[in-house]
Amino acid sequence: MDAAPTPPVTLVIFGATGDLTRRLLVPAIINLTRSRLVGEDLQILGIGIEPGDDEFLRGRLDQFLSHLSGEEPRVKDEAWESLRRRISYTSGDFTKDDIFVEIGKRLGPNANAAFYLAVPPSFFGTIVEKLAAHGLTDESDGVFRRVAIEKPFGTDLASAQALNAQILAQVEESQVYRLDHFLGKETVQNLMTARFANMMIESLWNNRYIDHVQITATEIVDVGSRGKFYDATGALRDMVPNHLFQLLAMIAMEPPNSFDAEAIRNEKSKVLKALRIYTPEEAKTHGVRGAYGAGPLNGTELPAYRDTKDVSPDSRTETFVALKLYADTWRWAGVPFYLRTGKALTARDTEIVITFQPVPFAQFRETEVNSRLPPNRLVIQVQPDEGMSMEISIKSPGLSVDTVPVSLDFRYADKFDIAKTTGYESLLYDLFIGDQTLFQRADGIEAGWAAVQPFLDIWAGDQSVPDAYAPGSMGPACADELIQRDRREWHELGVLLHRNGK
Ligand code: BG6
Fold it and tell me: Which class of enzymes does this protein belong to (predicted)?
């Protein structure tokens, strides 16, 4: 089914001169314009601290897009020229009233608006309060007024609850679009289809057949110039309660009774609320952390994390984390979910690995299949090389009864001509048409923070430093110990990429 064009809307971007706007939001809207999903009735009103007029913002974006065009020649084309004319700008302090009066004037009455908060999190609550105080979130005239909020949404359970309370005192949940950019990724959206459109997969999807689940999001990039943000955040906060838990929710949720946004969000929230909340003692044995040391990475000498610009030399912040979690539900009872994420590692690899139970293999007694058969595995590669791979055992050719593991591989790129996208296209499109499926609801966010809070608490009180690991490695030894204790192994990082010759 083709997607319908969006209704007329003004996208009001707070933080219009920032990196997110030029790198992701504007290129995504150009792509939507190109595919005719947004038309001439989309306006952009940029708000920033720097003084300037409409031409100021247009010029800034021009400059940035020219720079991008080196790699991607289609970025600046008629779609951009047409959008460019519909971009305006006004400057002011987000905490003062003047700017909100000005926004009101610019929008005029009866205009649909989506307010996008591409600003530091300390402004989220205040901006929503000011929007409401100036009547800008009022939908009583039949228009829509939505607020899109970037991550990080809170820094722990208490702050996430406080922020939700502050926002929901002003607007309805149906007006709030909390972003997690992982949900904009094509393969993440495919997780639900893979499960619920395939009897072969879904009928095995429970603790009778699944031994354990691994969810991985590793990166080669180091902390780089983000030292200030990262040292106050760490790998756990940065990646787990949001991105990794969104993947976990898609994998572990019960089938929704419809593809309606609320039905899906209900199921996702339910499973996140079922994540076991560890006691401090349990948290100590179910989570490990590391920080990269100095060493060669991608042909350059990387300084140790603690020697990174804007990072405290005695920082205890982790750049790698691995957890063993349980979703206490009928379906998943006893099935561990191992999660890991980190920076400066050997491969960029976001994947989900489902390892099935071993077969009873009684019929192979008296044959050469005398060692344990490798378990079946389903590997869902989210990025960078989207696809799926199913590892099964077959008989090896010849007269003897012996087996070999083989893999049935599917790569998106082999089958589809996937246009280069930013990952924000579907999120912005859904924001404009009012579909909240790919956005996080207040209860889901809080459930995620509740599950990681025990780790935050024990590490806050722990004076030891995270274990060091070598840049370009698979992570610290303590991560291997975490899983090997259970006689299991991590799936090798980047293995599908290597197989595909990348
Ligand atoms: C962001 C984190 O939310 O996600 C970054 O703050 C991380 O630290 C990024 O690098 C990963 O996203 P992606 O889409 O590059 O996998």
Answer: oxidoreductase
What DSSP letter does each residue of 36-95 carry, written as one string?
TSS-TTEEEEEEESS---HHHHHHHHHHHHHHHHTT-TTSSSHHHHHHHTTEEEEE--TT
**Domains along the chain with CATH numbers:** 9-180 (3.40.50.720), 185-354+442-499 (3.30.360.10)
Nearest-angstrom CA–CA distance, 89 and 210: 53
For atom 14 of ligand 1, which residue has the closest CA?
A: 182
Catalytic residue list:
243
Q: What is the pLDDT of residues 68-94, one digit of tens each?
A: 655 554 556 788 999 999 999 999 999
Q: Please report where in the chains the tokens 């057949």 appear, as a residue.
A: 209
Q: What spacing in Å lies between the alpha carbon of 326 and ligand 1's midpoint? A: 24
Contacts of 303 (CB under 8 A, 6+ apart): 294
Give 362-372 pLDDT, tens digit per residue.
Answer: 666 666 555 56
Could you give phi then psi for residue 349, rounded to 5 degrees? -155, 110
Question: Is 447 marked within a binding site?
Answer: no
Which residue's CA is the nearest one to ligand 1's atom 12? 182
Nearest residue (CA) to ligand 1, atom 15: 219
What residue type is assigned to position 236 of the chain?
L
In angstroms, rounded to a whole number, what is the distance separating the alpha carbons of residues 464 and 479? 16
Check whether 343 is labelled as a binding-site residue: yes
Contact 182, 246 (CB under 8 A): yes
What is the Cα–Cα distance from 44 to 472, expressed in whole angstroms? 42
Which atom of ligand 1 is the closest one to the Cα of 219?
A: 10
Distance CA 459, CA 284 (A): 9
Signed CA dihedral, 141, 144, 150, 151: sign only: positive
- The DSSP string of 151-185 is SP--SSHHHHHHHHHHHHTTS-GGGEEE--GGGGS
Which atom number of ligand 1 is nearest to the Cα of residue 151? 3
DSSP 207-252: TTTEEEEEEEEE-S---GGGHHHHHTTHHHHHHIIIIIHHHHHHHH
Give the pLDDT band (50/70/90) at residue 354.
Answer: very high
For 89, 115, 134, 243, the CA distances from 46, given in Å and listed in that order, are: 5, 10, 18, 28
Both tokens assigned to 342: 């980190």
